[in-house]
Design goal:
The radius of gyration is 22 Å and the shape is globular. Helix 2 crosses helix 9. It has 9 helices and 20 strands. With about 400 residues, it is an alpha+beta fold. The chain folds into 2 domains: about 260 residues, Alpha-Beta Complex (Naphthalene 1,2-dioxygenase Alpha Subunit, Chain A, domain 1), CATH 3.90.380.10; about 100 residues, Rieske Iron-sulfur Protein (3-layer Sandwich), CATH 2.102.10. A hairpin with a 2-residue loop joins strand 11 and strand 12. The strands form 5 sheets. A 7-stranded antiparallel β-sheet has the order 13-19-18-17-16-15-14, with helices on both faces. Strands 6-3-4-5-10 form a 5-stranded antiparallel β-sheet, with no helix packed on it. Strands 2-12-11 form a 3-stranded antiparallel β-sheet, with no helix packed on it. It binds FE2/S2 (inorganic) cluster (FES) and fe (ii) ion. Fe (ii) ion binds next to loops.
Length: about 400
C-alpha cells in the first residue's frame, strides 16, 4: 500500500529521525522558542464570531461553503441515494447511471417533505406524501394530477456542487476546482488509494466543544504522553512530530517508536509502520493515516460550542473481511483515543474557557501548526463579504 507520496513521506521521516536524540530521551524543541501564540477565548465562545465563521467557511441555507468530505466514493454505487445531513443543509447524494455523483436538496418542492431517509438504491426519487417524482439529478419527472398546478409551479430540486477526488466525495461552492483547492495535498491524498478502500464502519457524534478545539487537538503531538498515556503512547515517541503548511492545509508526520530501530537506509521500509501521516484539509476535514487503514474525519460545527464529529473508517477493500482486526482498531482509535480521550479533553477545554477564568489560549513551539491554521481562518474571514473583522 502506498502512503503519502513516498518521497514526501521519506523527506519528513528523515527530518524527524535527524531530531531524535540518542538513548531514548524525549526530542527537544529544535529551535529557540518564540513567545507563545495566543488566541482570544472569545473565538471559542462568542456566538457572533461563530456566525461569521459559518458564513465564511461552512455554508448552509443552500450554500456549500469551503470544500469538505461528505462521503466515501465507495459508499455510492450507481443508482445509490445517500441522505447527508449537515448543520444547515439536508442533501441526497446520488450516483446516476452515468456514474456522476450529484447532490440535491432532501426536501420536496411541493410541501417540503424529506424525500430519502436512509441509504437506498433507486431509479427515481418519489416523494412519500403526494408522489412528486424526480430523477437522480433532481429534475421533476412526474406530478400526479398535474392539471391541478399551473405550468410554472412545478420545479426541480435545487442542486449543490459536489465533486469526487481521491476516493472521497466533497461538497463545496467552488468544487469544480477541488484539485486546485487541495493544491499540494492532492497528490498525497491520491496516493492513499481511498478509491480501493471501503467504509468498514462510520459514526457521527455531537460533542460539546468548538470545532477549532478539535482541529487543534489533531495538530498537537505534545499531548500524546499525557492524554494518551494508557492507549497509544505505547506506539509513539513523545512529542516527535513535524508539521508543515501546504497552502492553507497542513501536512504532518508523527514518529512511531519503531522509527528508532529502523534501518539507516529506508528504501524498502513500510513508512506507515514507522510514522503516522496526518492532514488537515482546511477548514475542518482531518485525515489520519494509520499503519493499515485511514480515518477520514469531517467536522461540522453546529454552534459555537457544539460540533458533529464524523468518523469514516476506511479499510482496504481486499481486507474488509478481517473483522476481529478492524474491531480491535475501531475500539482503540474511535472509542478510546478519539471519544474518551481527545474529544473528552476538548469538552474539558470548552468548559474551562466557558468558565471565564482565562482570556486566551497559549500554543508553544510543539503546537506551532496552530499558527497557520488560525492565519487561514483569519484570511477566510477577511475574504467573506458577510464577515467584517471582529477583533475578537
Ligand atoms: S410534499 Fe412531496 S409530493 Fe407533496
Ligand atoms: Fe490526541
Amino acid at each position: 500500500m502506498k502512503s503519502m507520496q513516498r518521497a514526501t513521506h521519506l523527506r519528513l521521516i528523515e527530518r524527524l529521525r535527524a531530531d531524535l536524540p540518542a538513548g531514548g530521551a524525549p526530542a527537544p524543541v529544535a529551535r529557540e522558542a518564540r513567545p507563545a501564540f495566543r488566541v482570544a477565548a472569545a473565538r471559542y465562545l462568542d456566538a457572533g464570531h461563530h456566525a461569521r465563521e459559518r458564513a465564511a467557511m461552512f455554508g448552509g441555507r443552500g450554500a456549500g461553503g469551503l470544500p469538505r468530505v461528505i462521503a466515501a466514493s465507495s459508499a455510492l454505487a450507481a443508482g445509490a441515494c445517500l441522505p447527508v445531513d449537515l448543520p444547515g443543509l439536508s442533501l441526497i447524494v446520488t450516483r446516476g447511471a452515468d456514474g456522476v455523483v450529484r447532490a440535491v436538496a432532501n426536501a420536496c418542492r411541493h410541501r417540503g417533505t424529506r424525500l430519502v431517509d436512509a441509504p437506498c438504491q433507486a431509479k427515481a426519487l418519489v416523494c412519500p406524501y403526494h408522489g412528486w417524482t424526480y430523477d437522480l439529478a433532481g429534475a421533476l419527472l412526474h406530478v400526479p394530477h398535474a392539471e391541478a398546478f399551473a405550468p410554472g409551479d412545478s420545479c426541480s430540486l435545487p442542486a449543490l456542487p459536489v465533486s469526487e477526488r481521491a476516493g472521497l466525495i466533497w461538497l463545496g461552492d467552488d468544487i469544480a476546482g477541488i484539485a486546485g483547492y487541495l493544491g499540494g495535498l492532492d497528490a498525497d491524498l491520491a496516493a492513499l488509494e481511498l478509491d480501493r478502500h471501503v467504509v468498514w464502519r462510520s459514526r457521527r457524534v455531537t460533542r460539546r466543544c468548538n470545532w477549532k478545539l478539535i482541529v487543534e487537538a489533531f495538530l498537537d503531538a505534545y499531548h500524546i504522553r499525557t492524554l494518551h498515556r494508557d492507549s497509544i503512547y505505547r506506539f509513539f515517541l513523545d512529542a516527535a512530530s513535524i508539521m508543515e503548511s501546504v497552502g492553507r492545509h497542513i501536512r504532518a508526520v508523527t514518529a512511531r517508536r519503531t522509527l528508532r530501530e529502523a534501518p539507516v537506509e529506508l528504501g524498502g521500509s513500510d513508512l506507515r509502520a514507522l510514522s503516522t501521516p496526518s492532514y488537515v484539509v482546511f477548514p475542518a476535514t482531518v485525515i489520519i493515516v494509520h499503519p493499515d487503514w485511514v480515518s477520514v474525519i469531517p467536522l461540522h460545527p453546529r454552534s459555537v460550542d457544539e460540533t458533529d464529529f464524523d468518523h469514516l473508517m476506511l479499510v482496504p477493500a481486499a481486507r474488509a473481511g478481517d473483522t476481529p482486526h478492524w474491531e480491535k482498531n475501531w475500539s482503540l482509535i474511535e472509542e478510546t483515543v478519539f471519544q474518551r480521550e481527545d474529544l473528552w479533553v476538548c469538552e474539558q477545554a470548552q468548559r474551562g474557557l466557558a468558565a471565564g477564568m482565562v482570556d486566551e489560549l497559549m500554543f508553544g513551539e510543539l503546537e506551532s501548526a496552530v499558527r497557520p491554521f488560525h492565519a487561514a481562518i483569519d484570511d477566510a474571514l477577511a475574504r467573506s463579504p458577510a464577515a467584517p473583522p471582529t477583533g475578537a
